[in-house]
Structures are given as structure tokens and as C-alpha cells.
Specification:
Layout: H1 8-18, H2 21-25, H3 35-62, E1 66-68, E2 71-73, H4 78-87, H5 106-119, H6 121-140, H7 143-155, E3 159-163, E4 179-183, E5 186-197, E6 207-214, E7 225-231, E8 233-235, E9 241-244, E10 247-252, E11 263-268, E12 274-279, H8 285-321, E13 323-326, E14 333-335, H9 340-372, H10 376-412, H11 423-430, H12 440-453, H13 458-475, H14 481-505, H15 511-544, H16 550-567, H17 570-579
Parallel strand pairs: 3-6
Antiparallel strand pairs: 1-2, 4-5, 5-11, 5-12, 6-7, 7-12, 8-9, 10-11, 13-14
Helix pairs in contact: 1-3, 1-9, 3-5, 5-6, 5-8, 5-9, 6-7, 6-8, 8-9, 8-10, 8-11, 9-10, 9-15, 9-16, 10-11, 10-12, 10-13, 10-15, 12-15, 13-14, 13-15, 14-15, 14-16, 14-17, 15-16, 15-17
């Protein structure tokens, strides 16, 4: 079994050098975000992941959650791991100190989240969904609901879920049919919810469900859904749990992977109605939901980074140990890491993970400045940048994770296709990431429709201008000629593709749907390439100033070059596909498929 080691050195590089940790630490309430604090947090998170969470990962795969009667029982060992997780204060880390949280910024909580995802993806989904529920309650919940439910959700004494979709709805939330009937100071909820991650378990004495449902006077479509807080066990005015609410898990899904994470079908109101409480305004559940959804999308993008890094670590370890074949031009038998094609795969994995991590970290930086800055212009600028990056982080990172985990299996050869090495589990676990919280196609539609066409490309223009500044800086360093050339071509492709979309969508309504996936991937790889270009410049500066850790900075330059020479070249292909428009996408009659 390969031991997981949190890549804290690269995380610190991304946080301190790419994400302006120093600037974030000067924001109101972020004073604790100092480099030495961040290092201590990452190292301690890595210890818990290595010693507690990672060893449980294969057990969760072999001995997943099971349902007995009206209760779901988690993998043996998960409850004790969760107890340690909560006692260590990890559940409260990402929340504001005003609400009893750790008060650390997203640029710290994001890499910590990656550590949980990498070490045990199935386990990590539980606190991830709790965080989404907390953020929705902070943003939209009444003072009474916050007082009753926030403290224990933030501490981790209780966990939270998102109960959004239904059998007939899928991703089309306009088709949600669950009903909410007002009664006194609460509502009676009836309906069925599917795909509810960690919808039931025995690790805590309550689970707080955030449920979408319709009031009797609700208009049709998404404008008619409201959000309700529905506890598994009812809670009295003192915060004590009482009788079980009228809701139960009907079944748990049998999935490709993440077997340790119970994905539940939840029935509400079999005996008259589950008691729930309105969160936010009536018929405004969509806005409340997007508070949860946007955060969850960012964390699923980080999930892609985590599972990809875990697969890379396992593959690199195997490649250093597996003896097979002779070295090029020699009769000496060597480990497979000496073979150029294996090196190509490992470099693809390593540089992709580093590009993904850098992109997620700068998205976290934008979130911190958008949330805590007191400068209106800085706040607005970072809000626009974050909105643009969310679909790229979620969509591009999870798509690239599929390629990375697949290479991990390939490096293991036949041993990767059997369960013995563990490579197959990462391959299976990773597959959900492109589907969670909206498929890649939905992320692409979000990028094109809500983020580019809605503001006629203004936020994208600002991003492109920032990338061009880095291109100019790279042009001044002879060593980085290939990085500069490839990033220049990529940002040109992004600019042309954005203009093509805006111009052609006016005449051809199929344009947006036909090119959206390619534009998402183009945005993701170009934005990641930008961060790798910045990384190379920073690493060169560190070496010139004899900074400690020369080996790390030398390797960073190599991985940056590899990413821009081997992977960023895909940007031109995406650009060419976008320029082809919708004609051939829509050309066949449906009978021809």
C-alpha cells in the first residue's frame, strides 16, 4: 500500500507566491493567515491524512456503507476518524471566527481540502457537504435558525447535506416536485430526493438536510422553488435533539466508486410530513442553492486535484520500484522510471496536478479578496474573476483528473487493472467528479451563458489582459522562450474564441452549446498555463537570490516548461474546434445516430 504524503511544499508555494498570502493576511479578520501558521496547518493536516484517513481509504472501498432498516451504517473506522477530525478543529477551519470557526482564508482551506480529498475521497465528502450547508445558512438563514443550527454544524457535532434533485428532475431543478405546506411556525415537507451524499450515517447525533421544495402557491419553473432546513432529529429551543423527523433513507446507491460515501435516496413525509424551516425568502431557493452550489463546485474541482495527486504519488512510487526492461542503449535492467515513455506519463501527471493546484489556489485568493476586502473596486474585480474561474476550476480540473488517474493505471500496467495495487480505486473514485454538482457540459454552459455572454466578455477581457502581462514578463527571460510562445498562442486562441462566441451566437443559437465544452477546456488549460508561467518566473527569481530549497525551484521550472510545451499546446486545438462552429455538430438528423 502506497502511503499518502501531503504535498505541502507545493501547496505553500501556491499559497505564498501565487495567491498573495501576504495581501490576504492584511484583510479584515484574516490576520492569522501568516506563512508560519499556514505551514503548521498544512503539516498537521497531512499528519492526520497520512496516519488516519489514508489507511481507511481501501477499507471504505471494500467495505462500503450499508443500509439496515431506516439507518445507514458507515464503513467501520470512519466514525472514529470523524471524531478525531472534529476534535482537531478541522471541520471549523474554513469558517469565520465570528461564527466560531478557525478564521483562515480559502487559500488555506482549499489545500487542506485537497489533503482530505486525496487521502480519503469518500470520507471527505461528508465535511465538504456540511460546509456548503453552513455557508447557505450564514448567507440566507434567519437569526433563529443560525443560533440553533450553526454552532454544531460548524464544530462538526452535526453534519449537513444538500437535498436538491429528484428521480424525474436530474439536473433540471425546474422539475423539482417535493411539496412544502405551511403549518404554524414550520412547514411539512413531502417528496423523494435522490443522490444525497452522506444522506444518513451514525457518526453524529443529527444530520441537517437543506431541501428544495415547492410551496402551494409556487409558480412553475425554477422561480417556484424554496429552500428548507430539515433536521433528521427535531431540535428544541435549547439545541437538544428530540424525536426523529418524518424522513428516512430508502436505499443507498451501488456506485462505480467512493463506496465509503453513502449516496442515499431520501423519503420525506411518509407519515404526514417532515418538519422543515424556510431558509431565505419564499420562492427564492435557487439563489440560496447557488450559494451552496458554487462552493461545492469549487470543492469538487479541488477533489479532482486531490484524487489526481493521489494517483500520481502511487504511480511514481511504483515506477521507482518496478524493475522491467533495459535502459536505453544498455543491457542493464532498470526500474521503469528510467524509460522515457513512463517519464512522459509521470511528467504529464505531475505537471497537470501542479497546474490544477495553482489554478484552484488563485481562485481561492479571488474568493478571499471578494469576501473580505474593504475596497469596493478590489472586491468587485475579484468577484468577477472568481465567477469566471468557478466553472473552469470545476470542469477543467475534474476532466483532467480523469486523464491523470487513467495514466496512473497505465503506468502500473496489468497490475493497475487489478485491485491489488489500489490504482483501480482511484480510477473508479475519480469518475464522479465530472458529474457532481453539474456535469462538465453544465459547467461549460455556465461559463458561456452566465459568465461570458451575459457581460459580453468583459471579465474574460480582464483575464486575457492579465495573462498578456505575464507573457511580456516571460519574453524578457531567454530560458523561457518556449513557455512564452505557447502561452502567447494560447491566450490568442482564448481571445479569438471569446470573440467568435459573442459574434456568432447572435446569428446561430446553437453556437454556445456547440462550442461551450471546448471553450471551458481552453479557458482551464490557458489559465493553468498562465499560473505555470508565473511559477517559472518566481522559481527563477528564487534561484537567482539563493533561496532555500533550490531543488524544489529547479523542478518547478521543469514542470512549468513541460506543461507549457506539451499540454498548453492543446489550446490551439480547442481554438480550432471552436472556430468550426455548430455546423457539423448539428448536421445529422437524429435518425442518423
Amino acid at each position: 500500500m502506497t502511503v499518502y504524503h501531503a504535498p505541502t511544499r507545493d501547496m505553500r508555494f501556491c499559497t505564498e507566491e501565487l495567491a498573495d498570502l501576504d495581501g490576504i493576511s492584511r484583510l479584515p479578520g484574516m490576520e492569522a493567515a501568516e506563512a508560519d501558521v499556514v505551514q503548521a496547518v498544512l503539516e498537521e493536516a497531512g499528519r492526520l491524512a497520512t496516519e488516519v484517513l489514508a489507511p481507511l481509504n481501501p477499507e471504505g472501498d471494500r467495505n462500503g456503507a450499508r443500509i439496515q432498516g431506516d439507518d445507514v451504517h458507515e464503513t467501520p473506522g470512519f466514525a472514529d476518524a470523524y471524531r478525531q477530525f472534529v476534535e482537531g478543529g478541522w471541520n471549523s477551519l474554513p469558517f469565520s471566527a465570528d461564527h466560531g470557526g478557525g478564521g483562515l482564508p480559502s487559500v488555506v482551506s482549499f489545500p487542506v481540502g485537497e489533503i482530505w480529498q486525496a487521502s480519503n475521497m469518500a470520507f471527505s465528502l461528508c465535511p465538504m457537504l456540511s460546509q456548503a450547508a453552513v455557508e447557505a445558512l450564514i448567507a440566507h438563514g434567519s437569526e433563529a435558525l443560525q443560533k440553533t443550527y450553526l454552532p454544531k454544524l460548524i464544530s462538526g457535532e452535526w453534519t449537513g447535506t444538500m437535498d436538491l434533485t429528484e428521480p424525474q428532475a436530474g439536473s433540471d431543478l425546474a422539475a423539482v416536485a417535493s411539496k412544502a405546506v405551511p403549518q404554524d411556525d414550520h412547514y411539512l415537507i413531502t417528496g423523494q430526493k435522490i443522490f444525497i451524499t452522506w444522506g444518513d450515517h451514525q457518526m453524529t447525533d443529527n444530520i441537517i438536510h437543506m431541501v428544495l421544495a415547492r410551496l402551494p402557491d409556487a409558480p412553475t419553473g425554477v422561480k417556484g422553488i424554496s429552500l428548507f432546513l430539515v433536521p433528521k432529529y427535531l431540535v428544541d429551543d435549547s439545541g437538544n435533539t428530540g424525536p426523529r423527523n418524518d424522513m428516512r433513507p430508502v436505499s443507498i446507491e451501488h456506485k462505480i466508486g467512493i463506496h465509503g460515501s453513502p449516496t442515499c435516496v431520501i423519503s420525506l413525509g411518509d407519515n404526514g410530513g417532515a418538519i422543515g424551516y424556510l431558509v431565505g425568502e419564499k420562492h427564492n431557493g435557487l439563489a440560496c442553492m447557488f450559494t451552496m452550489m458554487n462552493l461545492a463546485r469549487l470543492h469538487v474541482g479541488i477533489e479532482g486535484v486531490g484524487i489526481a495527486d493521489r494517483a500520481y504519488q502511487r504511480a511514481a512510487r511504483y515506477a521507482k520500484e518496478r524493475v522491467q526492461g533495459n535502459a536505453a542503449g544498455s543491457n542493464e535492467r532498470v526500474t521503469i522510471i528510467h524509460h522515457p515513455d513512463v517519464r512522459r506519463m509521470l511528467m504529464t501527471m505531475k505537471s497537470t496536478v501542479e497546474g490544477m493546484r495553482a489554478l484552484c489556489t488563485v481562485a481561492g485568493s479571488a474568493m478571499d479578496f471578494a469576501t473580505y476586502s474593504t475596497d469596493a473596486d478590489e472586491k468587485a474585480r475579484n468577484k468577477a474573476r472568481l465567477d469566471l474561474l468557478v466553472p473552469a476550476v470545476k470542469g477543467w480540473c475534474t476532466e483532467e483528473a480523469q486523464q491523470v488517474v487513467s495514466l496512473g493505471v497505465q503506468i502500473h500496467g496489468g497490475m493497475g487493472y487489478v485491485e491489488e495495487t489500489g490504482a483501480a480505486q482511484h480510477f473508479r473514485d475519480a469518475r464522479i467528479a465530472t458529474i457532481y454538482e453539474g456535469t462538465t457540459g453544465i459547467q461549460a454552459q455556465d461559463l458561456v451563458g452566465r459568465k461570458i455572454l451575459r457581460d459580453e466578455g468583459r471579465a474574460m477581457d480582464v483575464l486575457i489582459a492579465d495573462i498578456r502581462k505575464t507573457v511580456q514578463e516571460l519574453s524578457e527571460v531567454d530560458e523561457f522562450g518556449d513557455i512564452e510562445r505557447n502561452l502567447h498562442l494560447a491566450v490568442d486562441a482564448l481571445e479569438s474564441a471569446t470573440a467568435f462566441l459573442i459574434e456568432n451566437q447572435r446569428e446561430d443559437p446553437h453556437t454556445a452549446g456547440a462550442v461551450s465544452y471546448y471553450l471551458l477546456m481552453l479557458t482551464g488549460v490557458t489559465a493553468a498555463g498562465w499560473q505555470m508561467g508565473r511559477s517559472a518566473l518566481i522559481a527563477r527569481n528564487k534561484l537567482e537570490n539563493n533561496a532555500e530549497g533550490a531543488s524544489f525551484f529547479q523542478a518547478k521550472i521543469v514542470t512549468s516548461k513541460f506543461f507549457c510545451e506539451h499540454l498548453l499546446s492543446r489550446a490551439r486545438a480547442y481554438g480550432d474546434a471552436i472556430a468550426a462552429g455548430s455546423a457539423n455538430v448539428m448536421a445529422l438528423d437524429e435518425t442518423q445516430f
